[in-house]
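User: Here's a chain of 253 residues. Predict its fold as tokens.
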Amino acid sequence: MRNPVSFFTRKKEIVLHCYTNRADVYNYFPIVKASKAIPEWFKRLPVPTYKSPTDHERNLKECVAFSSYFSKGFILPLWSDLFLDIGKQGTDAYTYQYADERSSIDFHPATNTGNHFSDFEYQHLKLMSPWVFCCDEKIEFLATGPEWYFDKIQPVNIVGGVLDFKTNSNVNVNTYIKRKEENQAITLEAGCPIYHFVPLTEKKVRLETHLVDNETYQRIHDKNTPVTFRRHFQKKNSILDQNECPFKFNVDK
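Assistant: Prediction complete.
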């Protein structure tokens, strides 16, 4: 008699490794499963009941779309309070201050969008994350703003994208803020979910976080170094398809 298990193919587990060289980030604001970052108001909702047309309790907890959303992927929380001062329309001014006094912000000029988002109408800001990710398998992750925390991050708009962490390790957060007729003073609180990474695969993805030394962190970060003037990620993918991935690490948890 055949072993019934032989009729099934076990899906290989994938591990997403998340590295930081900052003990404050690792201990206070680690990458977590999305199920660990469900909004408190959602958790406080009562269990839906239905006794009769006039006696029932209905709420968002009975919507499978939302419960499934909260169970998928991983959350990058903001690792420090962040103050932003965004100049008014017609200017290209902005200033920022992190509470940790060490994190940084970069930006892309409007020419990157063909001036569709003018510097005088919108401010692009890239929050430089203290984390780098690594995955041995080339699977894609949807990186998107945490939709049910929009009340915590307005008027900052998180820009989504699709990443694979075999070639890329950066998880910097791209944002746009629309300028108004007056300056805007914005404060984002540490711990607020800032990016939601959803694996685009049916395979199980397990999360592991690591606190590493500066040298190890830099080795992983070097994945992002351009090797060509144009389409450098495509070029690196082509190289990795022909050779075994050189970015493998034996790192203690």
